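[step 3/7] fold_predict: job queued, chain A
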Amino acid sequence: MILCCGEALIDMIPAPVQTGGTGYVPHSGGAVFNTAVALGRLDVPTGFLTGLSKDLFGEQLRETLGNSRVDTRFCILSDRPTTLAFVRLTDGHATYTFYDENTAGRSLFPDQLPDLPDEIGALYFGGISLISEPCADFYAALAMRDADERLIVMDPNIRAGFIRDEDRYRARLDAMIRRTGILKVSDEDLEWILPGPGPLDEKAGAIAARGPKIVIVTRGREGAFASFSDGTMVTAPARRVEVVDTVGAGDTFNAGVLAALASDGLLTRAGLEEIDGPRMKSALEHGARVAAVTVSRAGANPPWSHELSGPDPD
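[step 4/7] structure written:
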């Protein structure tokens, strides 16, 4: 099992109303949440760890997880409200305004770390849960505690406008990167982590030298590449599809990559050492295929495994 650790929130998606103007429709979301849902739909044994509210939105989130075959027994319940993220779409690209103070997801502390069963071979971290305190310290403490026993996978999905203390965030992120086996970043993330001139492949190699065996870099329509700590690099193109919006695109790409590696039994600390260039390239291609389905329809709506069956389209 892979345990996804991070935010679950409600995306308030704009929609026209009959009286004119724009209303907002609540959709279950969050970067780590989206990846967990996508993994469950791709038949990967998946659990979810977050702070979850008992309010009506928390019930919606639990129902969405359950309907996508995600194990919610690791969620920490509270009476605090659910995080809300109001979405603005411009030419299909999403920007967000968060309402996150004193929420169930944010209000986790390191002294609440759960004991985890041996069936969990990998922990996946990312999103705003690595920025917002105190939950960011909770997730960092979990990664540090379990890194010697379980594979750590991370996609920081950096939102610079959400960061209040950059030095503190950079220190936490760097400490987690050093214990991460597979790190995925967008080209924008990579430029934020290592600002200044220099090609992306060199910057990815510099990050890999800090600890990760594999650094995956996504470049939107330009596809993705993976840089190994030994200098190996493999690439995969993006799929050409008609884009409805990009909500959840990176999250479902991650799920596709992880699902491919899981199918080969590689989502463990021992399995990490067996990932080579050809297997990684195949995983990147599968991630692109999964993400292409998501961006071809509205919202973060990852595909089910049966939607990927049949011949692989060009």
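[step 5/7] annotate
The CA atoms of residues 52 and 58 lie 6 Å apart.
The chain has one domain: 2-304.
exit 0
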